[in-house]
Amino acid sequence: MAIAEKQTTVVGTSVIRPDADEKVRGGRGFPVNVTLPGMLHAKILRSLRPHARIVRIDATRAKQLPGVKAVLLPEDVSQQPYTPVFFVPTLAASMVQDMVVMSDTVRYAGQPVAAVAATSAEIAEAALELIDVEYEDLPAVFDPEEAMAEGAPQLHESSPGNVAVHPVFEFGDLEQGFAGADHVFEGVYRTQRVHTCYLEPRVCVVDADPHGRITVHSSTQHIFGLREKLAFALGVPESRVRVVRPPYIGGGFGGKLDLGYIEPIAALLSMKTEKPVRIEQTRYEDFITTARHPITVHLKTGVSKDGRFTARYAKSVLDTGAHATHGAEVINVHGFFGFLLGYACENQTWEGYTVYTNNMVGGGYRGYGAPQGAFAVESQIDEICEQLGFDPIEFRLANAHHEGEPHPFNPGFTLSSYRLDDCLHQGSERMGWEERTPAGSDSGTKKRGIGLACHPLWVSGCMGFPDIYEHSGAIIKLNRDGTADLAVATIDMGSGQTTTLCQIAAEGLGLPFDAVRIVFAADTETVPFDAPSHASRVTYSAGNAVQAAAEVVKQRVLEVAATMLDLPVEELDTRDGMVVANGASEPALSVADVVTRAESPYVQVGPQGPAPTTIGEKGTIIGVSSQAPPSNPSPATAEFVEVEVDTETGEVEVLRVVFAHDIGKVVHPNAAEGQVEGGFQQGMGYALMEDLQFDQQTGACLTADFLDYKIPTAVEMPRSIESVFIESDEPTGPFGAKSLSEPCVIVPAPAIANAIYNAVGVRVRDLPITPEKILAGLDELGGATDNRASGS
Amino acid sequence: MTHPIKIQVNGDGHELAVEPGETLLAVLRGKLGLVGPKRGCDGGGCGACTVHVDGKAVYSCMTYAAGLDGCLVTSVEGLGNGTLDPVQAAFVTAGAVQCGYCTSGMIMTAKQLLAEVSDPDEEQIRHALAGNLCRCTGYQKIVDAVKLAAAGA
User: Fold this and answer.
1) CB contact under 8 A, A680 and B138
2) pLDDT tens, A302-330?
3) A 547-566 residues with CB below 8 A of B?
4) B62 in contact with A, Cβ within 8 Å
5) ipTM of the complex
6) Of A178, A470, A605, B117, which residue is 20 to 30 A from A712 by alpha carbon distance?
7) Is residue B100 domain-shared with residue B64, that is, in the same domain?
8) Domain CATH code at residue B74
9) A280 → chain B, closest CA residue
10) Band (A784; pLDDT cuts 50, 70, 90)
11) pLDDT tens-place string over residues A123-147
12) Architecture label for domain A3-27+471-627
C-alpha cells in the first residue's frame, strides 16, 4: 500500500480522552460505585493458619446476630476443582485444576473459610467474629526449594513433590554448545513477590434472581472469562450468567485477570438470600489476592570470543503459592519470552518448576513471567560485556533476531516490523550513552552511572499460543446525526483502550473522532467475545476487529450514498463525516444524510406528493466483526537509565530515563507516553523497593498496607522520562499499530541494576536492590572501589 | 450511640447522625452519594479519598465525621461552577488521567497546593503530591497538569 493511502487523520493524534472529563468530575462508572436496591454486604472469614484442616466449624452464633441474612461454609460449596484463569478454556489440558471456592483444607494464611451476608458490612464483619473454627495444624513450607526436597510437607495429593508443572524445552545440542564456548558465565538471579497495586479494590455485586439468572458487576479485566469461570465454579450453564462491562475500572495490570473468591461467594450468598450481594475487598485482602511470582533463575551461558551465544541454559523455580492457577502458565511465558526467544542461539535448554508452597497464590501482573527472566538475562549480558569488553549495544544486536526473519515462536509468522536496532541506537544517542565512563569511576561519595536493558521479543496478544483465547469482536452502529456507537467487550483498565479503539473506528469510518462513542451498556449477552485486556493485545487484536467492523459499515454507507447520488460505489469515499466523490472539490453528502435516508420510510412525501425511494437503501447501518488477529507482531524495547548512588547510605536515585520502543504506528502519542511513564514506576518499584513480605512461621502478610508496602511516589520518581517511539509500519496491524503495555514494565529492573553497577561496581542479583544490599556490596569491594575511584 | 452534626458539603447543608467511628469518607459515599472520594486503603496510605475540610486537604478515610460539626467540606464534585475547574481541565488536557481512581484525590491535593503557592516549582509540586499514590501514570503528566493549571491561574 502506498504511503499516501495510509495517511491518517485521527489515528496518530492525541485526542482528548472522552473518559477523562467524567473521571475529573468524580468518575461514576467504577464498579465500586455500583449499588442495587435491597443489596446485602458480605465479608469473608479468612484463615490465620498457613496449612491446616478444619476439624469443626460452627456459625450458630453468627446466624443469630440481628441483620445477618446468610452464612456460607465449606460444606455449602461445591468441591469441583477449577482454575480461575480467565484466558484459558475451563478444562484446558495445559492447566492444573486444583482450586475450589471454599475448602476444609487451608493452604495459606488468608484463605477463605466462611462468609457472611448481612444488611451492612459492619454487621457482616461483626458476625465473622462469632464463627468458631477448630483447626488441626499441618506442617507448612514457605520456600520452593525446601518444598521440592524429600520429606517436605505436601500441599496437593495430585502433585507429589509439590511440583505443579515442570516444563522442559530443548533446542540443538547444549553440551556441544558449551564445548564450543570460549567463556562460560553462571549466575543465580532472584526476584521477589510484588503486587500490582491497582487502586480500585477488587469489588463485585452479584444478583441471582429467582428465575435462575445471575447478573454480575465486577472490577474485572474480562467479562467473558468471568462468565465462563463463575458458571463453572457454580455448576450452572454459562448462558445463565450475565457479566456487565464496567465503563472503566480502577487499574488492573493483570491483577484482575482471574475469578476471585469474591464473585462465587457473593453469587452463592445471593442465591441463598435472593438479594444482590456486594463484596468489596480491603487493601489487606487485595495484597494477598494475586501477586507477581517470585522466580529464581539459575543461568548458564556460553559465549564465543567474537561475542556470540554458543549455548544457553536456565532453570527457573517459580513459587506459585497454595494453588497453581496462573503459575502453570506464567512459567511457560517466562521460559519462552523471558529466556529462550529474546536472542538467537542454536543450543538452548530451559526447564521450569512451578512449585506449591503455603504462600499466597500468585497471579497475573504486567510482563507475566518476563520481568523475572529479563532481570536475569539482561543483568548477565551486562556482566558478559563488562568482563569481555564487548559493546553492550552491539553485543545485543549481534545476538538478536532481525526484521524479516521468521517469528522465533510462531514460525508461520514473520517479524514483519522489528526495529530493535533503531531502539538501541536512537535511545543511546538521546541518553548520551557514548559518554558513559567505566564502572565505579565517578568520583565523590555520590556516584552516577548509566545502564541499559532491552526486551527484544514480546507479543501483541496470544495468537499462536496453545490453549489461550485470542479473538475479538466489535459492533458499530451509525446514528442519524452522523455519529457512531462502538460496542466492544474490551475492558479499559485505564490505559485508554476505549479511546484508541474509537480512534481506529473513526479513522476506518471516515468520521471525526468526537463522532464515535463507546457504548457503556454492554454485557456478555450483547457484544461479541473478546479475550481479556492482557498480553499487550487490545490495540492490535481488538483494534483489528474494530477496523473490520468499520469497513463493513463504511461499505454500506457508500452503497446507500451511491444510490442517492446515482454514482458507482467505487467513486465514493468518506472523509471527516462527509461522503466525497472522486475528483469533486465539495462533499456530495454528509454521513448523517446517508444514515437518515437509510432509516427513512420507503415512501417519502415531498412537495410533489408521495414518492417511493429504493428498498435496497433501507435498514440500520450496522457492522459486526468477530475474528482472530492475523499475526502476533513483536514490539521491541530498549531502555537507558541514569542513576546516582549514595555510597554512604546505599540509596539510589533514578535521575533520568530514556525509553525507546518500536510499537508500530503510535495511535495516541500522549497515552503511549503515559503507558511508558507509568510502566517505569512499576518497574522501578520492582527494582528498588517493593517486596511483599510474609512471616516465615505463621505465613501472615507483613506488608499489607501502603505504609509498609512502598511504591514510588512523585518524589522518588525521576524528573525526566523521555519516550522515543520508532514508528515502524506493521503490515498486519490496524493502521500499522502493534502493542506497548508490558515491555516498559519488564526492562526497568535490569536497566537500573546495570546502571547501579556502572555507578559503583556492585552487582546485585536479587531484587529489590535495597540500600543494605548496595552497602554490603561496597563493603565486599572494599579498598578496590577506593582505588578505582581515585586511580582513574 | 449516634452523634448529631451539621456540615456543609459542596454548598449544601446536611444534618446527620453519625456513629462515633464513622469516617468522613463513609458519610460522603454512603450517606450523601458522593462517589468522587475513593476508598483505596482505609489507612491514609493512598490519598484517593482526599477532600477539603474548611479549605484544607485531608484524607477523608482518616477523618471522623463526628468531629466535623460546623465544617465546610468540599469534594471533587464541588469544584467548578457548571464547568470544569482549571485544575480539572488541566488534568484532562495534560493526559493526567488514566484509570482515574486516584484523580479526585490528586485534584483536591493540587487545589490545596495552588491555593497556598500560586506558582509552585516542580519540587514543590512533587512533594505536595507525595501523599497521593498513582499506579498508572508515573506522575509525570500529573505534574504537567499542575504546572499547566498554575500557568493558567
Assistant:
1) yes
2) 999 999 999 999 999 999 999 999 999 99
3) none
4) no
5) 0.98
6) B117
7) no
8) 3.10.20.30
9) B39
10) low
11) 999 999 999 999 999 999 999 999 9
12) 2-Layer Sandwich (3.30)
Q: What is the pLDDT of residue A6?
A: 62
Out of A21, A23, A283, the one facing B41 most closely (by C-beta) is A283
Last residue of a domain, one of B24, B56, B78: B78
> Are A785 and A761 contacting, i.e. CB atoms less than 8 angstroms apart?
yes
- CATH architecture of residue range(s) A34-138+196-287: Alpha-Beta Complex (3.90)
**Average pLDDT value for chain A:** 96
Q: Tell me the one-letter amino acid at A573.
A: D
Residue A666 grid coordinates: 503510535
Q: Chain B residue closest to A497 (CA)?
A: B98
| Partner B, chain A 682-711, Cβ-Cβ below 8 Å | 682, 705-707, 711
Cα gap A218→A252, rounded to integer Å: 12
The per-residue DSSP string of A509-554 comes to HT--GGGEEE-SS-BTTTS-----S-TT-IIIIIHHHHHHHHHHHH
Contact B24, B63 (CB under 8 A): yes
Residue-range definition of the domain harbouring residue B121 = 86-152
Dihedral (CA of A128, A129, A134, A136) sign: positive
Q: What is the pLDDT of residues B94-153, one digit of tens each?
A: 999 999 999 999 999 999 999 999 999 999 999 999 999 999 999 999 999 999 999 986
> In this complex, which of A24, A26, A250 lies closest to B92 when CB atoms are compared?
A24
B58 with B104, same domain: the answer is no
Q: Which residues of B touch A717 (CB under 8 A)?
A: 126, 138-140
d(CA A132, CA A124): 15
- B131 and B92 in a single domain? The answer is yes
CB A680 within 8 A of CB A669: no
3-state secondary structure of B11: coil
Measured CA to CA, the distance from residue A364 to residue A370 in angstroms comes to 11
Which one of A25, A278, A684 would you mutate to disrupt binding with B, by most B Cβ within 10 Å of its Cβ?
Answer: A25
B101 touches chain A (CB under 8 A): yes
Q: Could you give the number of structural domains in chain B?
A: 2
Identify the helix (H) or strand (E) that includes residue A311: strand A309-321
Other residues' Cβ atoms within 10 Å of the Cβ of residue B142 = 32
CATH code of A391-459+632-791, in short, is 3.30.365.10
Distance CA A362, CA A468 (A): 19
- B94-114: b or e for each residue (b if 16 or more CB lie within 10 Å)? bbbbbbbbbbbbbbbbbbbbb
Look up residue A351 and give its three cell numbers: 526447564
In a shared domain, residues B98 and B134? yes
Per DSSP, the three-state class of A672 is helix
H/E stretch holding A477 reads strand A472-478
Cα–Cα separations (whole angstroms), residue A444 to A329, A753, B11: 47, 20, 57
